[in-house]
Amino acid sequence: MTMRLAVNIDHIATLRNARNEGHPDPVEAALLAEKHGAAGIVCHLREDRRHIKDDDLARLREAVTTKLDLEMAMTSEIQKIALALRPDLVTLVPEKREELTTEGGFAIQKHFTRLCEFVKPLRDKEIGVSIFIEPEEESIALAAEAGANIVEFHTGIYSLCTSDAQTAYELERIRNSARIAREMGLSVVAGHGLSVLNIAPFKELRDIEEVSIGHAIIARAVFIGLPAAIQEILDLIRR
Ligand code: PXP
Questions:
Q1: pLDDT digit string (tens) for 32-87?
Q2: Helix (H, G, I), strand (E, B) or coil at 40
Q3: For a pocket test of ligand 1, which of 7, 158, 192, 217 has the largest count of ligand atoms closer than 8 A to its C-beta?
Q4: Which 3 state secondary structure label does DSSP give 130?
């Protein structure tokens, strides 16, 4: 099974918003990413709309032909938007106003009752539901019980490892968790902090079907262009 790459285009919008004059356009970036091998486009409509705006999301829904993944916090406001817009899937993430980026997996035990109620109307509309969690068995089981069909493992800890021993430990944790998730019938994605510097070992993690990468690709694209930045990752994950 080939590993897919989903490209998060939030930071194209960050750059656009620095001037607010319409460019670079995240939709143009999404189409270019698809043309050069992205199997999906990811964007995060945050409560404070700091990068992607509602209009971007509507245009992305029209334009994206692979798979549109809307990252969102568990709020009624964004749920209403998701139900009307019908992305191919939503990825539920924790969101704090003051954070620079998503800081960790969803606290699934703490929010379990609300989570079950939140997932149902999305699944009823045939929207896929992924939950961004730490790679650990209890969270995986709760995600499955809540009705999610996908789990995305937070790889932030892995991406910050500074020794070979730590890296090997984290990879093993991710590998085992991915196997458990697949045995429970879930699809498995990994993301956060992945880049050309640390993605290579993921090629061997056969239960992970997709990686979701944003910042590193967009940052690299500034120097070598978006198609080349995508190709670098694809070359490293091709099985
Ligand atoms: N997956 C999820 C759920 C995220 O919240 C993020 C950050 O927006 C990413 C993947 C991508 O992380 P990065 O920008 O570090 O590649």
A1: 999 999 999 999 999 999 999 999 999 999 999 999 999 999 999 999 999 999 99
A2: strand
A3: 192
A4: strand
Number of domains in the chain: 1
pTM: 0.96
Only one residue has tokens 């143009």, namely: 28
CATH of the domain at 109: 3.20.20.70
User: Tokens 């992205």 appear where?
Assistant: 38
What are the beta bridge partners of residue 77? none
Domain region containing 36: 4-237
Nearest residue (by CA) to ligand 1, atom 1, is 191
Polymer length of the chain: 239
Alpha-carbon distances of 26 from 63, 192, 218, rounded to whole Å: 11, 19, 11
Residue 51 designated active-site: no
